[in-house]
Amino acid sequence: MAKTALITGVTGQDGSFLAELLLEKGYSVHGVRRSSSLQNLDRIRGVFDPVHSERSSFRLHYGDVTDASNMRRVIDECEPDEVYHLAAQSHVKVSFDEPEYTANVDALSTLRLLDAIRAVGGEKSIRFYQASTSELFGKVQETPQTETTPFYPRSPYAVAKLYAYWSVVNYREAYGVYACNGILFNHESERRGLTFVTRKVSSVVAKINNGSDETLHLGNLDAKRDWGYAPEYVDAMWRMLQRDEPSDYVIATGETHSVRELVEAAFAAVGIEIAWEGAGVDEVGKCKKTGRTLVKVDPWYYRPTEVDLLLGDPSKAQRELGWTSKTKFEELVRIMVESDNRAIAQGQVLR
Ligand code: NAP
Ligand code: GDD
Hints:
The chain is α/β, with parallel strands linked by helices. It has helices at 13-24, 68-78, 92-97, 99-119, 156-175, 197-209, 230-240, 259-268, 315-321, 329-345; strands spanning 4-8, 28-33, 58-62, 82-85, 127-133, 179-184, 187-188, 216-218, 224-225, 228-229, 249-251, 257-258, 274-277, 284-287, 293-297.
C-alpha cells in the first residue's frame, strides 16, 4: 500500500523539495497551503495540477497552523501515515518584529498538530517530523554542535522553536508518539526566499553580472553558518521517519563559512574578485579590477542578538540514517548564482 504524507509548509523551500521526493517514492502527498490574495504556488508548480487535482497523488488543502480545528480536520480527511511539520514564520530577524505571532506559529502549531494526532487516535499509527533548527544552539556552548550540546536560543524564533522541540520530546515520552526533531543547520537552494542571506547575495550578484548598477547591502559579515543544499536535507527528514525507534538528529555539512566568504564565492562565480577595505559599518567590498564598490554594510540588517557561529556534527545521522551531505559550499553558491543568472537572462522576475 502506498503511504500517505501530510506536509505543512508545502509551498516553502523545503516543503516543495520534500513533496517531490515523496511523490518519487510513490507516496500520496497532501499539502497545507495558506489562503492569500496572491497565489503562492510557484515552488510547487512542478507537482500541482489544479485541473486534475482530485485524481492526482498530490493534493492541497487550505489551512493555517494557527487554527487547531482546521489542522485536526485536515488530518482527519487525509489520514496520513507521516506528518512533516515544516510550516513556520522562518525568518529570524522578522521574529524580533513579530515575536508573539512567531510564537503562535512556530511554538504552538507543533503542540496543535501533536494534539490533533492524539485526538484522532493516531499515537501509534502517525509518525511526526518537527522542523527543528540549529538556531536552538544560538550562543553556542560548544563547537561543533551535536544532539547533546546545550541550547541557548538568541531570538524569538529560536525560543519558539525550543518550545516545539520539547513538545516533540514530551509527546514521544508521554504518549509514545513516533516523533522526531530534525535539528537542521542552514540549507539553501535556488528556491530559497530572497530575504535570506544566501539568496539575497546570489540574486544581487546575478543582477550586477547582468548590468545592474545595484550595490549589495548586508549586515553582519562575520557571522558564520554551516550551509548545505536543501534537496539533500529533505531526504534526511524522510529517513528519520523510517527507523524502528524515533530520535532527534543534527543534519549539517560539518563545514562553516562566514557571510564575507559567501560574498566572495558568489562574485567569484561570475568572475569578479572582491577586495575588502575598512572595518565595521565602514567596510566595503570593491571589484579588484575596476575599483567599483559592490558591497556595503548597512546596520539595519543587524539583529538585536546574533548567532555568531554554527557548525554541526552530523555523525549520528551518518551512523544511524546513512545520511551525509554531498554538495560543498562553493558548489552550492555556484548553483544559486547560475540559477539567478539564467532566470534574469530569460527575462524572469526573481522570486
Ligand atoms: P520557508 O521557505 O520560509 O517556508 C515556510 C512555509 O511555512 C511556507 O510554505 C509558508 O507558507 C508556511 N507558513 C508560514 N506560516 C504559516 C501558517 N501560519 N500556516 C500555514 N503555513 C504557514 O521555510 P523553509 O526554509 O522551507 O523551512 C522549512 C521549515 O524548516 C521551517 O519550519 C523552518 O523554520 C525550518 N528550518 C529551516 C532551515 C533552513 O535553513 N531552511 C533550517 C532549520 C529549520 P507561505 O508560502 O504561504 O508563506
Ligand atoms: N537575512 C540576512 N540579510 N542575513 C544577513 C544579512 C542580510 O542582509 N547580512 C548578514 N546576514 C547574516 C545574519 O545576521 C545571520 O547571521 C546570517 O547572515 C544568516 O542569516 P539568514 O540567511 O537570514 O539565516 P539565519 O541563519 O538567520 O536563519 C536561517 O537558518 C536557520 C537555521 O540555522 C533560517 O532558515 C531559519 O529558519 C533556520 O532555522
